[in-house]
Write a structure and sequence with these properties.
With 293 residues, the chain is α/β, with parallel strands linked by helices. Among the domains are: 86 residues, Orthogonal Bundle (Arc Repressor Mutant, subunit A), CATH 1.10.10.10; 103 residues, D-Maltodextrin-Binding Protein, domain 2. Helices cover 43% and strands 23% of the residues. The strands form three sheets. A six-stranded mixed β-sheet has the order 4-3-5-10-6-9. The longest helix is centred in the first third of the chain and has 25 residues. The radius of gyration is 23 Å and the shape is globular.
Length: 293
């Protein structure tokens, strides 16, 4: 194996290709021609003396040897990124990047005002926000793709540290004229008898109610799946189905109401980051800002 030939550019290309599963997509993202990417990957395979990529399938996949190299490629790039951040931060908080992750609902209704205030205080820090389900965000933190993300802190994950806990309650979303709106709380049994509009799989607001329904030996009647909050609200108003949400999304809409579940369904989140991972000054500044505001 020609270890000296494993330069950063080849590993960067290889890692991006593994993420997209497509030579054409990676070439566009990397800003290079697709043939150049193919040549670079073939050269990488020659350098290590192993087949790394399965090209015969419709979607490009890695061989078992490729998966091993990918693990180390990500570690190398993460360390180079951390070194760059530390050196750059010697200039202070006039610059920097924070890669954040949160669900669409929390991003729109909880994070928005705080992010605006944070940018006003630290105009030189760039914020990149990724919206995804909690399961996806947790994996992105572990992979080093995000600095911080709002993820579940229970059960505790061995690869993630948590700080600044956020405790919310998942509630049922329904029109004010719906007959269940007359109740102070709604059972999972009563909720499961209604047509439903829910988030897609991978989101805790979907997974939690499905778990409760399984415990009650009920089957959910899911009529529509969407991660778009405003569309979800319109579908509920149009009586396509009921949904689950957090109270914060209906503060200015008198046509909708929420009711807690009985027993309650807690949503316990916290800002999480990868253990043994350098937390940049910009990320630390964001956590301190969040805590004090």
């Amino acid at each position: 194996m020609n270890v000296e030939a494993l330069n950063f550019k080849k590993l960067l290309y290889f890692s991006d290709l593994a993420a997209t599963g497509s030579f054409s997509k990676s070439a566009r993202r990397l800003g290079i021609a697709q043939p150049a990417l193919s040549i670079s990957m073939r050269k990488l395979e020659e350098d290590v003396g192993l087949k790394l990529i399965n090209r015969a399938e419709r979607r490009m996949t890695l061989t078992s040897d490729g998966e091993v190299l990918l693990k180390y490629a990500r570690l190398i790039m993460a360390q180079l990124d951390e070194a760059s951040q530390e050196l750059g931060e010697l200039k202070g908080l006039e610059s920097g990047v924070v890669h954040l992750g949160a669900s669409a609902m929390l991003s729109s209704y909880l994070l928005a005002p705080k992010l605006i205030a944070f940018k006003q205080k630290f105009p030189g820090i760039r914020v990149r926000l990724t919206e995804a389900g909690t399961d996806t965000l947790e994996q992105m933190v572990i992979n080093g793709e995000l600095d911080l993300a709002l993820v579940r802190y229970e059960p505790e994950h061995e690869q993630i540290r948590h700080a600044e806990k956020l405790e919310e309650q998942i509630v049922a979303l329904l029109p004010t004229h719906h007959h269940l709106a007359e109740k102070e709380a709604i059972s999972v049994e009563a909720f499961s008898q209604q047509p439903l509009v829910l988030f897609r799989k991978g989101y805790f607001l979907r997974e939690s109610i499905e778990a409760r329904a399984r415990q009650a030996k009920r089957v959910l009647d899911i009529r529509f799946e969407t991660n778009l909050i405003e569309l979800m609200k319109k579908l509920v108003l149009a009586e396509v189905g009921l949904s689950t949400c957090l109270d914060m999304i209906i503060e200015n809409d008198a046509r909708l109401c929420t009711r807690p579940f009985d027993p309650p369904i807690p949503l316990n989140l916290a800002w999480g980051w990868r253990k043994n991972h350098y937390l940049s000054q910009a990320s630390q500044a964001f956590l301190e800002f969040w805590k004090s505001n």
